[in-house]
Specification:
The complex is a heterodimer. By secondary structure, chain A is mostly helical. Helices cover about 70% and strands about 5% of the residues of chain A. Chain A has eleven helices and three strands, in the order αααααββααααβαα. In chain A, strands 1-2 form a two-stranded antiparallel ribbon. Chain A is globular. The relative contact order of chain B is 0.18. The N and C termini of chain B lie far apart (about 55 Å). In chain B, helix 2 crosses helix 11, helix 3 runs parallel beside helix 4 and helix 11 runs antiparallel to helix 12. Chain B is of the alpha/beta class. In chain B, the strands form three sheets. A five-stranded mixed β-sheet of chain B has the order 2-1-3-13-4. A five-stranded mixed β-sheet of chain B has the order 8-7-9-5-10. The chains are: A mainly alpha, B alpha/beta. At the A-B interface, strand 3 of A face strand 1, helix 2, strand 2 and helix 8 of B.
């Protein structure tokens, strides 16, 4: 009897050790893969990494080629994406968690949002092209718009349909990341203890006041984590942008939201696809910049999150 | 005193020259799309033009000659890059929409058949052999099927997409008007992808504009084309003289007539024609004879619209560029 316990204890310990070993191996593998990737890129890219890369436009000479247009394009895209997807996503999530009645329609909506998260991003690109860029042809063609206000290079220029503009790129990316924002916000809102809500309601607060003053502040860190994830996704997305504008050789920075644009992933894709080794080095440098931009966006979000958690 | 007078005169004349040619304050947009074969020239021109007129916003896309014409006829672009003349069907579409254009040949290209650098058995191909490889229904699977002295290494075919002018041109030469090309090839609209494909595959074969070959000479081998008499390799001389038949061909840009009313487009097109020869040579194509550029310049000035490659009856015009542009 005693030996059986000891034996089973021994097997248990062995299994435990095997599992830990398995976890360590798997972690090492993934970290090594990442490290190899980063080292290769750093190795190839650091030689070309200087201010000229950031301050000059694309060129047919690899030594002169820079990412100014693509970098600014990406910054515009991500800003538009965050500004549009965050309010819509958070509002949807709060509605579903706090206000929506538990009926068939709600469940249907929830199912659809979960499905949307799995839709390939190129499909969103096609939606963006037909609905946002061409507006189903209701307002004339891109080059002959029905509504046009202002000078195309002024900041307040407005046009219907939106055309293959940076605004459409940003809105399409917003569609791509919306399910992520919604799902992560719902998780965050759900994590707020219901005792807090009940206390707030018992004090005579309305549901809106409860959401605004109790639920949202408590779930802000979780929401911002979702925002970080979605921004990272948006920065790296190439397929939907490719459908909307295609790869463009551009030597200017967007002047307004209706301007033509190119983005970092497209520029990197173009350079990496060229047969000349020199362009691969430029692509590697651009990847380093892209990672830096990614870290900057994440850093800002992490900072805000930190501030919220402290208060 | 005289010295001062001279200096003033000199400064004044310099100022006049500068202001007559000064495009640094010119603004506007120029939208270009189309052939990936013409892209290197247009990209180079756009880059140089940015020094000349930094405030003009030029965008250059790559969607293939066919894709470019689709956007052009929809009124979305000002200029369309094309590696073949416009087709009657595409012209009809423009006519229906009342869109007039001016055809501008910018350089010669030699459509180059390339194979892997390590392919040491094949140096030359005849058009008949190309037909054997590429025609629809072809049973050729290995190099050995083509010539029994060659190894049994599979032929891996890389081709520009069907929206590409290069594909259209190749198809017309190899398969004729009605024939079709086999469909089991690796296809890409991006010629760089084809370069990488052929250079990484010992049995690979592909075709594209000669600039992409000259740019990657260290990775690829060009096949000489046997025209029945001699084997001709594509180079500046054979392309320009037309000796590299039947694959020597002109490249074009098509300019929307109404777009020329925009100063930015007009200045850009003038700049393009002025520098097309130099830039074409720099990126690996062959310049046209100067008199052709002069003639085209006149066409722009007089707004001579339409293509020279389709006659009044809607039939295709064939022949050397010089004779077509009489």
């Amino acid at each position: 009897m005693k030996s059986r316990i000891a034996k089973s204890h021994g097997t248990k310990q062995l299994k435990n050790k095997l599992f830990v070993l398995f976890c360590v191996i798997v972690t090492t593998l993934s970290v090594t893969a990442l490290a190899v990737l980063l080292i290769t890129i750093a190795n190839q890219g650091f030689a070309h990494l200087d201010w000229d890369l950031i301050s000059s436009y694309a060129s047919r000479h690899p030594e002169k080629a820079g990412i100014k247009a693509a970098l600014w394009g990406t910054v515009w895209l991500c800003s538009i994406c965050v500004i549009t997807s965050l309010p819509v996503g958070v509002a949807t999530a709060v509605y579903l968690e706090e206000f929506a009645p538990n009926n068939r329609i709600t469940r249907f909506l929830e199912l659809n949002i979960a499905n949307l998260a799995g839709v390939p991003s190129i499909v969103y690109g096609i939606i963006g092209l037909t609905v946002f860029a061409r507006m189903l042809g209701l307002f004339g063609t891109m080059n002959n718009p029905l509504v046009e206000i202002g000078d195309p290079i002024s900041f307040w220029y407005f046009r219907l349909p939106f055309g293959s503009s940076v605004l459409v790129g940003g809105l399409t990316l917003a569609l791509v990341v919306l399910p992520i924002v919604i799902v992560s916000t719902r998780e965050a809102v759900r994590a707020v203890p219901s005792s807090l809500r009940e206390a707030s309601l018992a004090m005579g607060a309305t549901r809106w006041e409860t959401v605004r003053k109790v639920v949202l502040p408590r779930s802000a860190p979780g929401i911002l984590t979702g925002a970080i994830l979605s921004t990272s996704r948006a920065i790296g997305e190439a397929a939907p942008i490719l459908v909307i504008g295609g790869f463009l050789f551009i030597r200017f920075v967007p002047a307004n939201v209706f301007d033509d644009f190119t983005a970092m992933p497209l520029q990197i894709y173009n350079w990496a696809g060229r047969p000349q080794e020199e362009f691969h080095a430029v692509a590697a440098s651009a990847i380093i910049v892209l990672l830096a931009v990614l870290l900057a966006f994440n850093g800002v979000a992490a900072f805000i999150r930190y501030r919220y958690q402290r208060n | 005193m005289i010295k001062i007078l001279l200096t003033t005169l000199l400064t004044a004349s310099l100022a006049v020259v500068a202001s007559a040619d000064d495009n640094s304050r010119l603004t506007g947009t120029v939208k270009i799309d189309g052939s990936s074969t013409v892209y290197p020239i247009t990209e180079a021109i756009a880059e140089e033009f940015a020094e000349e007129a930094p405030r003009v916003r030029v965008t250059v896309g790559i969607s293939g000659t066919g894709g470019g014409f689709k956007r052009f006829s929809a009124g979305e672009t000002d200029i369309s890059d094309a590696s073949r003349p416009i087709k009657a069907k595409e012209q009809k579409l423009c006519d229906e929409l009342g869109l007039e254009f001016i055809e501008v040949p910018v350089a010669y290209d030699g459509l180059t058949i390339v194979i892997n650098k390590n392919n040491d058995w094949c140096d030359t191909l005849t058009v008949d052999q190309l037909k054997k490889i590429y025609l629809d229904g072809s049973t050729i699977k290995t190099w050995n099927d083509l010539d029994s002295s060659w190894p049994t290494i599979p032929i891996k075919m890389y081709s520009p997409g069907t929206d590409s002018g290069t594909f259209d041109y190749f198809k017309e030469v190899v398969a004729g008007k009605k024939g079709s090309i086999r469909s089991d090839m690796s296809v890409s609209e991006d010629d760089n992808v084809l370069v990488r494909g052929v250079s990484g595959d010992k049995g690979g074969i592909g075709f594209f504009g000669c600039a992409y070959y000259f740019e990657n000479k260290d990775k690829l081998k060009a096949v000489a084309i046997n025209n029945g008499k001699t084997n001709v390799i594509p180079n500046k001389k054979t392309i320009e003289s037309g000796e590299y038949a039947p694959f020597s061909r002109p490249l074009f840009i098509y300019v929307k007539k109404t777009a020329l009313d925009k100063p930015a487009v007009k200045v850009f097109v003038d700049y393009y024609i002025e520098n097309a020869g130099d830039m074409a040579e720099e990126v690996g194509y062959v310049r046209l004879p100067q008199e052709l550029y002069d003639r085209v310049k006149k066409n722009i000035a007089s707004r001579k619209t339409g293509t020279q490659f389709i006659d009044d009856k809607g039939e295709k015009v064939h022949g050397a560029l010089e004779s077509v542009y009489e």
